[in-house]
């Protein structure tokens, strides 16, 4: 049995990653940096992969800087025989406030505000009265070329202020309803102070619509002239760093646990697998992290995109140049996807929100999510495979979640990936509280539970699946 103390080094690493990754750009970039440092080769997705990879190799590539595909090829993989892809899939995005395309906002009174848009289904009341920084990606003109730069302003430059209790009616206080357009626009300064430093703005159809102080801030951070900034995708984030918390350090508090805790653990699992168990591997172990799950996954970087099916096809055809359509279909049948997204732990103050028999607990292990109405992709076989993988290593057995019959069910990228690729999929995740809050909570030990299970999946999936496959054949022959 692993203790909290044994989980702390991993939890500290997780906190570092969470704090350093306030948006999908940084989440992907920080993951890519770890992979690169560990010797993963960066593939150029715009060029053919043929001739670029070999059994025993480890690689990654990114899509538009917010999605990433990282994989290892087992040294025992036979390129002439169908093999499988052991996939862990998650998402890099979280609900947040994003700067609108025209960041300048006309405000009442003395305060200067930024125009922001709500991204995803946040618990928006949790964004009030927090010290907010700004981060994301900026396009900068450099002579005749345009460069992409990541920006991370770790200063409390913005704040969404609450209305004083004395100014709210009793009904308003009781409801605490947030109008997403009117009440979430952050304050960044006061006019008299900012106007003292008023700057001339370009009239180029873009710059004049931007808050000049925002452009100044970015230009100072990036060391470029403000007039060279041509566009951006910027997020606001809570400045409070991720923390190990609780009386016995049994919790991690952070923004974006859904789903960066998964991104962190899955990349750690792939790194460990690459280091320790590639030698006996006959398959491809792959982590795919998508963007835009929180808004339905329909984008070039989301789970509805061809990223996963394309990865399987490109990698297998580059590795096995003689592969046919039939060969490719056999590969899909030998593959398996662990769709990992955070799960709802039982909340002691709202325990009636869970069905008693399927109420996951913090620090008690990964949760398999099932929904017979297919809001989750878990099936009889995929559920069994994950449990069996855990059993082989004597790991904490997975917990089970089914939503109450009288409550709507969330969903994940699992059903989307399963229907787009035909790859068997299980939906699972680490339990947490306060999902979609600006600051969420999970169990310290569940990071380790996740790492151990993901690693066991890479190490034992093939033997578990082979036993099952033999079972299928016997059944058919007996009939
Ligand atoms: Zn999620």
Rounded radius of gyration (Å): 24 Å
Oligomeric nature of the chains: single chain
Mean pLDDT: 94
Between the first and last Cα atoms, what is the distance in angstroms?
44 Å
CATH class of the largest domain: Alpha Beta
Q: Characterize the main sheet.
A: 9 strands, mixed
Instruction: Please state the structural category.
Output: alpha/beta
- Level of helix content? 25-40%
**Proportion of β residues?**
25-35%
Total number of distinct structural domains: 2
Number of strands: 20
Q: Which descriptors apply to this entry?
A:
479 residues; alpha/beta; Aminopeptidase; Aminopeptidase i, Domain 2; 2 domains; five-stranded mixed β-sheet; 11 helices; 20 strands; globular; disordered C terminus; binds zinc ion
Fold blueprint:
Blueprint: H1 4-20, H2 24-37, E1 41-42, E2 58-63, E3 67-73, E4 85-91, E5 96-105, E6 111-119, E7 132-142, E8 145-158, H3 170-175, E9 187-190, H4 191-196, H5 212-222, E10 229-238, E11 243-245, E12 251-254, H6 257-276, E13 284-290, H7 307-319, H8 325-333, E14 336-340, E15 343-344, E16 367-369, H9 380-392, E17 399-401, H10 414-421, E18 424-429, E19 431-433, E20 440-443, H11 444-478
Parallel strand pairs: 1-2, 4-13, 4-14, 14-18, 15-19, 16-17
Antiparallel strand pairs: 2-3, 3-13, 5-6, 6-9, 7-8, 7-10, 11-12, 12-20, 16-18, 19-20
Helix pairs in contact: 1-11, 2-6, 6-11, 9-11
Describe this structure in a few short sentences.
This protein has helices at residues 4-20, 24-37, 170-175, 191-196, 212-222, 257-276, 307-319, 325-333, 380-392, 414-421, 444-478; strands at 41-42, 58-63, 67-73, 85-91, 96-105, 111-119, 132-142, 145-158, 187-190, 229-238, 243-245, 251-254, 284-290, 336-340, 343-344, 367-369, 399-401, 424-429, 431-433, 440-443. By secondary structure, the protein is of the alpha/beta class. Mean pLDDT is 94; it is low at 475-479.
């Amino acid at each position: 049995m692993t203790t909290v103390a044994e989980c702390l080094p991993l939890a500290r690493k997780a906190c570092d990653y969470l704090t350093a990754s306030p948006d999908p750009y940084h989440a992907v970039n920080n993951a890519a940096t770890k992979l690169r440092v560990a010797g993963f080769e960066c593939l150029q997705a715009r060029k053919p992969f043929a001739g670029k990879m070999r059994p025993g190799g480890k690689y990654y590539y990114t899509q538009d800087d917010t999605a990433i595909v990282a994989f290892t090829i087992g040294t025992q993989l036979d390129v002439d025989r169908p093999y499988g892809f052991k996939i862990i899939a998650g998402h890099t995005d979280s609900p947040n406030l994003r700067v609108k395309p025209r960041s300048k906002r006309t405000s009442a009174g003395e305060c200067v505000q930024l125009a922001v848009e709500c991204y995803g289904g946040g618990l928006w009341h949790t964004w009030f009265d927090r010290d907010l920084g700004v981060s994301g990606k900026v396009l900068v003109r450099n002579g005749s070329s345009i460069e992409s730069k990541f920006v991370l302003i770790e200063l409390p430059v913005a704040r969404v202020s609450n209305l004083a209790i004395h100014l709210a009616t009793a009904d308003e206080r009781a409801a605490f309803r947030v109008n997403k357009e009117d009440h979430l626009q952050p304050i960044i300064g006061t006019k008299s102070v900012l106007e003292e430093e008023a700057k001339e703005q370009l009239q180029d159809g873009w710059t004049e619509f931007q808050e000049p102080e925002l452009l100044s801030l970015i230009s100072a951070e990036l060391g470029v002239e403000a007039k060279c900034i041509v566009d951006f995708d910027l997020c606001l984030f809570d400045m409070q760093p991720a923390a190990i918390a609780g009386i016995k350090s049994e919790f991690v508090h952070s923004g974006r646990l859904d789903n960066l805790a998964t991104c962190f653990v899955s990349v750690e699992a792939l790194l460990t697998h690459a280091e320790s168990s590639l030698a006996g591997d006959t398959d491809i172990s792959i982590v795919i992290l998508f963007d835009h799950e929180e808004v339905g996954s329909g984008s070039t970087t989301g789970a509805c995109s061809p990223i996963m099916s394309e990865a399987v096809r490109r990698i297998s055809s580059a590795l096995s140049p003689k592969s046919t359509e039939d060969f490719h279909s056999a590969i899909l049948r030998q593959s398996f996807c662990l769709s990992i997204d955070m799960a709802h732990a039982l909340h002691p103050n709202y325990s009636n929100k869970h069905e008693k028999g399927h109420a996951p607990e913090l620090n008690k292990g990964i949760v398999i999510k099932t929904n017979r109405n297919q809001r989750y992709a878990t099936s009889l076989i995929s559920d069994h495979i994950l449990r069996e993988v855990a059993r082989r290593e004597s790991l904490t057995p997975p917990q089970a979640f089914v939503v109450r019959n009288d409550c709507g069910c969330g969903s994940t990228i699992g059903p989307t990936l399963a229907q787009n690729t035909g790859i068997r999929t299980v939906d699972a995740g680490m339990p947490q509280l306060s999902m979609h809050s600006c600051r969420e909570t999970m169990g310290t030990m569940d990071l380790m539970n996740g790492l151990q299970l993901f690693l066991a999946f890479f190490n034992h999936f093939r033997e578990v699946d082979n036993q099952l496959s033999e079972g299928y054949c016997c059944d058919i022959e007996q009939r």
